[in-house]
Specification:
Length: 877
């Protein structure tokens, strides 16, 4: 019986490994497979807020990072292997089995947004280290995807050093390899990699010119083979020697290079190779040499977003391929670092002078009108002027940095290289450690702020070279606009620190960059129309806070994007339709530690009308007098008098609803619309109730229902559903209580509404219901599995089953992924352990425990997890 259980139920917890999970077999067939995913998104944060603003094109998600995360990054960390009924058999962390790099800017976002997935990626590297003799799957990446052959030497060094330091902070080890943005490479770039201790990189087969055996059977160097047309054999690593000034190879300095299999990699992105793991394995098999060589590597590389975002569900095919299909073929799933350690290069390669994987003209895609990235009638003549403009700005900012930084920092450029530690951890302790190492002398708080502003200026100067800005065929695309926003922020910081005005000259240079969009005309038009309005001043932040405070009860200290707002004084008063808030706050940047104290007066006149003034006061007495004057004006119940007082005290610059950050503006618009929508809902509900019998008659006799009555039914039933769901959520949201014991009457009512909606063919509009019900199911599963099984376990499981079925009845398309992940972990850690102990005679399985396990397995049925094998094992005990 123990043997049977061993075959059907894994004994280890998730994260441990067995030969079934891809552990290297004792006898290798000589075929090694390495799949590399380049996971990356361009940085999208507003440079002034350090946060991504809502991007409507990413709907129903908040922004494109969030959308791609839910379509690719999280699904790969929790990849499903399904049976023919769509039930989960296994949940696989594909990052444990593929070579990968994740852009540091993307990981920074993920660390804040989804710590669970972020940690699972780190765990994947650690587990792959254990599986592959200390060689992890993760490799580093140049920090923010700069095309290194086009960067100056100083920026090359910083980008590589930042990438390495960020990798070490996250993964806890030195990187062995590094991914170059767009695999763009030249020999000066390789020299930087070698200098910084990188052992290998990955390139396209089109980037090599010739190769030869390092040593022939006669002990000599072999003859060169010209492979410039992409004929390189990608089944082996190559050694690339750096060169002396005279062009001859330096045998003491080299880096190893893997060239991925071009045809298979292209097919992964553009054909149906990833439609199933069998197709994938079949395509890999076509690349295996039949010449009986003892070892060979089949190496493929593609954008990691291919697995799930570009190709929906491809992460499932990948997960099954690397854990089941490839091992079944006798192939060893490995990574580049491990293969290199066990099979060092026997061949040498020379690269073409300057190349990249996505441009057939070297690296002209990021500097010239080469045609790459087009495909239509649009030109790319803007590329060269854009790069020239940024190069000019970079050099101006470098002068500011050196001149101003020399008085504050021992070595400004060394401090810039080390600043990556602060970028990853902006705590007081991190700042203290940084300044202890790099300050030229003990700095005052003001001087520290100046130093941080200089370093932030340099950070944005590097971000403005992010490759995506040139990748496509129009400067006004979001990617081009974003790098210009970084340039704007860098210029603003230069102005704050050195009083230097660079914007006019910079914008004038952008006039030489012609846009394909007549509205913009050129880069200067793009800058004026799309970049300048995205600037955020401290006054705007306080105005945002002030108007928001009319509808929200802020804490005394409130975080607002990249600022902390501390109330020094605050008073709010309502009089009829008027609401007035007056306050004084200290605004502190969490990035530069710059502080500013500002006062505000914000008046809501009703509806969409707001009037807000911002200014600083020299004394607390002046502020108090101004506050009293404002509330005296309000006491006259005169909107006009109050507005005049705000203008007199705060100046003519007034802020309104349109000046709020988009998301806060939309939130307030919804709040202001609630009363109107409530009245409409009540009206439609009354129409539905008054005509209920008439509606039944129409449906009973199969007659077309008048549109007015059908719309009333749709809205009334949708509103009732949401009201009951909100009540159910409130009833079950208390973390100290058991939600599974509560809400029965609401669940019954929701079942009744679903039946009624089905009878009337109602089109329910329930956008808020899906996340609400998903959250309730997840919390309920967590509550059930995190406590010892109770007497009500069977009833609790049935209650959850009804909740899940309700989602189907309401056609919500519920995602059960997160509760499935909870359940899968519980199955491995608790149920499997119990059954193994029982099978081995270590522990007696009591009748009560057996019943409880059956109930837990029924929960698996409701969650669409395949528990048949576990149920069979239980019955065999």
């Amino acid at each position: 019986m123990a043997d049977t259980l061993q075959q059907t139920v894994p004994s280890q917890a998730p994260g441990d490994h067995s030969t079934h999970d891809g552990l290297i077999p004792a006898v290798s067939t000589g075929i090694f497979v390495c799949v590399h995913g380049h996971f990356y998104q361009p940085p999208r944060e507003n440079p002034y807020l350090d946060a991504i603003e809502k991007q409507p094109g990413a709907a129903p998600f908040h922004d494109w990072n969030e959308r791609i995360h839910h379509e690719c990054y999280r699904p790969n960390a929790y990849a499903r292997i399904l049976n023919d009924r769509g039930e989960v058999i296994r949940i696989v962390n594909t990052f444990e089995y593929i070579s990968f790099n994740l852009g540091p800017t993307l990981l920074s976002w993920m660390e804040r947004y989804d710590l669970e997935t972020y940690q699972r990626i780190l765990d994947a590297d650690r587990n792959s280290c254990q599986r592959l003799n200390g060689h992890g799957n993760a490799i580093a990446q140049v920090y923010n995807h700069i095309i290194l052959p086009l960067a100056n030497q100083r920026d090359k060094l910083t980008q590589v050093r930042w990438g390495i330091a960020d990798f070490k902070r996250r993964f806890g080890r030195d990187p062995e390899g590094i991914w170059l943005a767009e695999t763009a490479v030249d020999y000066p770039t390789l020299e930087v990699l070698v200098q910084e201790g990188i052992k290998f990189t990955i390139l396209a087969p089109s980037q090599v010119q010739r190769c030869r055996p390092l040593v022939t059977t006669h002990g000599e160097r072999g003859d060169w083979h010209e492979v410039g047309g992409g004929q390189i054999d990608p089944s082996r690593p190559y050694r690339c020697f750096l060169k002396y000034p005279d062009g001859s190879p330096d045998p003491s300095r080299y880096i190893d290079v893997f060239f991925y299999d071009g045809p298979i990699s292209r097919d992964m992105g553009f054909n149906d190779v990833l439609s199933s793991s069998q197709h994938f394995a079949g395509r890999i098999a076509q690349a295996i040499h039949g010449d009986h060589r003892p070892f060979q590597l089949i190496s493929v590389a593609t954008d990691g977003e291919t697995f799930g975002h570009h190709r929906g569900g491809a992460e499932k095919a990948l997960a099954y391929a690397v854990t089941e299909e490839f091992p079944r073929q006798g192939w060893t799933v490995t990574n580049y670092a491990h293969y290199l350690a066990t099979h060092p290069p026997a061949w040498e390669a020379e690269l073409k002078p300057v190349t990249a994987w996505s441009c057939s003209h070297g690296v002209d895609r990021w500097q010239d009108d080469c045609g790459c990235g087009g495909g239509g009638d649009w030109q790319q003549q803007w590329r060269r002027p854009l790069r020239d403009s940024l190069d000019w700005l970079r050099d101006q900012l470098s002068q500011v940095f050196e001149q101003q930084g020399a008085a504050l920092l021992n070595d400004p450029w060394a401090a810039r290289d080390a600043y990556v530690a602060v970028m990853g951890d902006r705590s007081d302790d991190s700042l203290a450690a940084f300044f202890a190492a790099h300050q030229a002398r003990p700095l005052s708080a003001t001087e520290r702020t100046t130093a941080l502003q200089l370093l932030e200026m340099q950070r944005h100067a590097l971000l403005m070279y992010t490759s995506c800005g040139w990748f496509f065929d129009e400067i006004s695309r979001p990617e081009g606009t974003q790098i210009l926003r970084y340039a704007a922020r860098a210029m603003d910081l230069a102005g704050e620190v050195a009083g230097i005005a660079l914007e006019v000259a910079f914008v004038e240079r952008l006039r030489a960059a012609p846009s394909n969009v007549a509205t913009f005309k050129d880069g200067a038009g793009v800058y004026q129309t799309l970049v300048k309005p995205s600037r955020v001043s401290p006054e705007q932040v306080v105005a945002h806070y002030a108007m928001g405070s009319l509808f929200s009860d802020y804490r005394r200290e409130q975080s607002l994007y990249s600022y902390t707002v501390e109330q020094q004084d605050y008073r709010r008063q309502r009089l009829g339709p008027l609401s007035l808030a007056v306050g004084q706050v200290t605004l502190t940047s969490t990035i530069t530690r710059e502080t500013l104290t500002l006062a505000f007066g914000a008046l809501h006149l009703g509806g969409w009308d707001f009037h807000c003034g911002i200014r600083s006061f020299r004394s607390r007495l002046d502020y108090t007098k101004a506050k009293d004057e404002l509330f005296d004006g309000l006491g006259q119940a005169s909107a006009a008098q109050t507005i005049l007082a705000i203008n007199r005290i705060f100046g003519d610059r007034a802020y309104g609803l349109q000046d709020l950050f988009a998301e806060e503006r939309h939130r307030m618009m919804q709040l202001l619309s609630q009363d109107t929508l409530l009245r409409l809902d009540q009206l439609y509900s009354q129409v539905y109730r008054d005509n209920y019998g008439v509606l039944r008659a129409f449906h009973r006799d199969g007659l077309p229902v008048p549109q007015e009555l059908q719309v009333a039914a749709d809205i009334a039933l949708s509103q009732r559903t949401l009201e009951v769901l909100h009540a159910l959520e409130r009833e079950t949201s208390d973390p100290s209580s058991n939600p599974l014991r509560q809400g029965e009457e609401y669940l019954n009512e929701l079942d009744a509404i679903a039946t009624e909606a089905s009878y009337f063919n109602a089109r329910l509009s329930l956008p808020a219901a899906k996340p609400m019900l998903e959250g309730l199911i997840w919390r309920s599963v967590w509550q059930l599995l995190s406590h010892e099984p109770s007497e009500s376990l069977a009833a609790d499981v049935d209650w959850l089953g009804r909740l899940i079925a309700l989602g189907d009845r309401l056609s919500l398309g519920l995602s059960l992924e997160r509760p499935q992940e909870l359940y899968y972990q519980y199955l491995h850690r608790q149920v499997f352990d119990l059954l193994h102990r029982a099978a081995q005679g270590i522990q007696l399985l009591r009748a009560k425990q057996r019943v409880q396990v059956y109930d837990i397995l029924r929960l698996g049925d409701y969650l669409s997890v395949d528990v048949a094998a576990v149920r069979d094992a239980l019955e065999g005990l």
